[in-house]
Structures are given as C-alpha cells and as structure tokens.
Amino acid sequence: MYFGKVKSKGDPNRVPPNQHVTTTFPVLHAGNVPYYEDISKWDLQVFGLLDHPKRFTYEDLMNMPQMDQGNDIHCVTGWTKLDNVWRGISTRQLAHELGLHENANYCILHAEEGWTTNLPLDDFLKETSLLAHSHNGETLTPEHGFPFRAVFPHLYFWKSAKWLRAIQFTEHNHPGFWERNGYHMKGDPWLSQRYHFD
C-alpha cells in the first residue's frame, strides 16, 4: 500500500485497465470549493430541449423519490474506489418528468465557476446514473460536491460533475472544460478513453 492505494490484482471485471484501487476518497477539482451559507438560495436549473424546463430548489429535489445506488468509481488519474453507495435522484426519472424532446441527443452539465462537462443522452439516462446528495450514508461534504453532484459510474469520474447548477439538453455535442483541454469526449474507463486521441 502507498498513499492509500493498493495495486489491483483483483477482479478484472471491476477494475478497468491501468487503474489502482484506493481505500480513500481523493479530492480533485478545478477551481474553488463552494460553501453555501444559506441552502435556500441554491437552485438547479434544468433546461434546453424539454417540454417542461424547471428550476429546482434544494427542498424540491429532496422531496422527490430517492434511490440508493451501489457502484465502483474510476478516476481518469488512475484510482478506483470500490463499493460506493450513493443516495439521490434518478436522472432517468427527472428527464422523463420534464419531457425530453425527440431531438435531444446530448446533455451538458453546468457547475460552479462556469465548469461544464458533456455526455451523450444515453449515458445520462442509464439506470445507474443519478444526482447524488449522499455517499455511504452521509451527506456529501463541500469537497465532494454538496449539495448535489452527478454520478455516472460507467464513465471516468470527471464526467460526474460536482456542485451542479444546471443541466442542459441539446441536439448537438458541446465539449466541456476538460474536453476542450484534451480529455476524451466520451470517457469510457474500460476502453481507457482518457484523452481525445485514445
């Protein structure tokens, strides 16, 4: 073990190529960590190619049906954390209730400080995808994305944007912050899609 990491010799069905298992939960991000003194002033705007775009308060989201989802997560920097349990809202249910247009093909996640990331609609709507407020039975800390972060465990973890402020549905794909800086547009850890040329 070194720096909380263990070189993986475990189940290759759970640990993608060139990943190491960690028992910690590393904190990686660009920009500052936001702290909300009054959560009633926070909101999440969901807009774009929808029949019923909506601005949600924190209370609105917490009053929606909740789901628990167990998964493994894989960071593009090389660590994998096994056996996570998240609690939050199904992205599939959220999109269904707001009425997706037929020409909605992609989703753009907008976070604090203008940070964005993009993904195909099919990835956003996967059964395992959610907007999470809790991890392993505890409310997310500010460093890990409080009050809500996206969780897409089948993609590298940079796609699971922290500090969400808006979700936009679009017809065409638009690269986000890291994608504009050389990261892969898809980010499949099982195909080692770290960079745009992978």
Automatic annotation (TrEMBL):
Recorded hits in Pfam families, A to Z, give: Oxidored_molyb
Residue span(s) of domain Oxidoreductase molybdopterin-binding: 31-178
The signal peptide, as residue positions, is: none
PANTHER family attached to this UniProt entry: OXIDOREDUCTASE MOLYBDOPTERIN-BINDING DOMAIN-CONTAINING PROTEIN, PROTEIN-METHIONINE-SULFOXIDE REDUCTASE
Identify this protein by name.
Molybdopterin-dependent oxidoreductase
Q: Which organism is it from?
A: Metabacillus idriensis
